[in-house]
Amino acid sequence: MIIFCRKMGQGEWSRMGHNFYEFLPEIPRNPRFANWPELGKILTEGVLRDRGQRDQKVEEAVERHGYTQREVADFLGLHFTSVSRIMNQRSKMQRK
Predict the structure, then answer these.
(1) The pLDDT of residue 48 is above 80
(2) Could you tell me if 18 and 46 lie in one domain?
(3) What is the pTM of this model?
(4) Which of 8, 28, 63, 89 has the most crowded Cβ, counting Cβ within 10 A?
């Protein structure tokens, strides 16, 4: 994963504590996540036939690859709250 940051000067170093690099949120989202696999490669036809696999891949797309729940929902033709429910159910299952 590529993280864009800038090196801070010595005066800024002391104010920030141990963080010598600062994350730059103003960099547009596309360059920050340029190495994302396309959603079509994550959510393939075969995966979409099985709800369990689909839910696993939805979680992977959001948590691992940084897609928004809305982007995943639009790709799947679902409402974004459906993707939110999938994410909540998966997190509950992992806590058990």
Answers:
(1) yes
(2) no
(3) 0.64
(4) 8
